[in-house]
Specification:
By secondary structure, this protein is an alpha/beta fold. The chain contains nine helices and nine strands.
């Protein structure tokens, strides 16, 4: 998403700021009980492993900055108009129905096409999270009695972190073809690692279950069965 925002920041601001305000205004008019905002781990900027929700946010790049601004807007509207909020900070979500401009979809589709996967920073790590686990956490936070007016990291939070190089190698192993080209780290993105999800575990009983090996295999199998993607491989 960072690259998309940088390509057209005016349009991005219309979607991420004006669009959000329109939703918040509707929430105010219709007197909703709770507003759920999907933010991003990008609001933290550069961070080390085990970052908690109360960490100081120092977003790098327009996407992270706009997401953090969105969090502030949500909290301000909730304060003024008396509804609850929940803010979700996911990280590196992948899986079925994703678009092709995200790292794992690029790796998997590239491998399936026998292309060269461009790994920008071999040792960079991300808290890769399968879409079902992310959706579960969002649903639990939406209805959870203990979730009102809180922020949650909703990620896999696997202590065995996966590097970009390992993710590319896994995609090639599953697809049975493809090559790797290692490039310098993309400085448009902050350095990231594993997020701490203890708050979600305690408040929501959140328990992600799909490790990256199983998630990649599921994703590959879905591509194999998709009429849409089969015509584009």
């Amino acid at each position: 998403r960072q690259k998309v925002v940088e390509q057209d920041p005016v349009l991005a601001s219309e979607v991420m700021a004006t669009g959000l305000i329109n939703l918040l205004e509707a929430a105010k008019v219709h007197k909703i009980k709770r507003f759920v905002y999907i933010s991003s781990s990008m609001v933290y900027g550069d961070f080390e492993n085990d970052v908690c929700e109360n960490a100081v946010c120092n977003p790098i790049g327009q996407y992270g900055i706009m997401k953090y601004m969105g969090e502030q807007l949500v909290q301000d509207y909730a304060r003024k108009y008396g509804f609850e909020y929940v803010i979700i900070r996911p990280s590196a979500v992948y899986g079925e129905y994703d678009v092709e401009d995200r790292v794992i979809s690029k790796f998997m589709l590239g491998a399936m096409r026998g292309e060269t996967l461009k790994v920008k920073g071999a040792g960079e790590v991300l808290d890769f999270t399968y879409v079902e686990d992310a959706a579960l956490g969002i649903a639990q936070a939406t209805v959870g009695k203990n979730a009102a007016n809180k922020i949650y990291n909703i990620t896999r939070s696997d202590t065995k972190l996966t590097t970009l190089l390992e993710a590319a190698e896994m995609a090639i192993s599953i697809a049975g073809k493809g090559k790797i080209e290692i490039l310098d780290r993309d400085l448009s993105f902050p350095k990231r690692g594993r997020l701490n999800i203890e708050r979600a575990v305690q408040d929501l009983d959140y328990s992600p279950t799909v490790n990256i090996e199983e998630g990649f295999r599921r994703y590959y199998d879905w591509f194999q069965k998709s009429n849409y993607w089969q015509s584009r491989l």
